[in-house]
Design brief:
With about 170 residues, the protein is mostly helical. The chain has a domain of about 90 residues. It has a two-stranded antiparallel sheet. A hairpin with a 3-residue loop joins strand 1 and strand 2. The longest helix has 28 residues. It starts with 15 loop residues before the first helix and ends in a 12-residue tail after the last strand.
Length: about 170
């Protein structure tokens, strides 16, 4: 509600400042947890544990994956760890993943604002609509002795028309 209309929220009796402070505290808490997990994984807590290049790469992959969904975050993590490992197993140069991530970032910035996860969601939605329309088409073929007029109503062919919208 706060995201849609900041002027209307106080009229509904919601304290905007309290919710903004709560969001800031939650973000700080999650950042502290993430830093603790990073320190546990790397084994030390200093500036050399997480270099600037790695930070930029992680940020770029978050944009490529999709920063608006959990699926995008998981995809970014998989791209960061699994994709370079697969290329390493195939004896491909280590700079190739960085170049491919850069190309993916440009693609995301220019054509896919919601990232790869958003594109996958849109593609699955299109497939679902296509499947639903194919099912409707099959159902229309099964129905006999009906005429669809104006894509609104179905009437039997033997029904009297009486003029108007229906035809034999």
């Amino acid at each position: 509600m706060i995201r849609r209309c900041k002027v209307c929220v106080p009229a509904a009796g919601v304290d905007i400042v309290w919710y903004k402070m709560w969001a800031l505290a939650l973000a700080g808490f999650l950042a502290g947890i993430a830093r603790g997990v990073l320190a546990g994984g790397v084994g030390r807590v200093d500036g050399s544990a997480f270099l600037a290049g790695q930070s930029i790469m992680l940020f770029a992959l978050t944009i490529v994956g999709c920063a608006y969904s959990w699926a995008g975050a998981l995809l970014a993590g998989l791209l960061r760890r699994v994709f370079p490992a697969l290329l390493f197993d195939c004896r491909v140069d280590g700079d190739i993943p960085t170049m491919l991530f850069g190309a993916g970032l440009l693609h995301t910035l220019f054509t896919a604002r919601r990232g790869v996860a958003g594109q996958l969601g849109d593609g699955l939605g299109a497939l679902r609509r296509l499947f639903d329309s194919a099912t409707v088409f099959q159902n229309e073929q099964v129905v006999e002795n009906l005429t669809v007029v104006d894509d609104v109503r179905a009437v039997p062919d033997s029904a009297p028309t009486g003029g108007g919208r229906y035809a034999n």
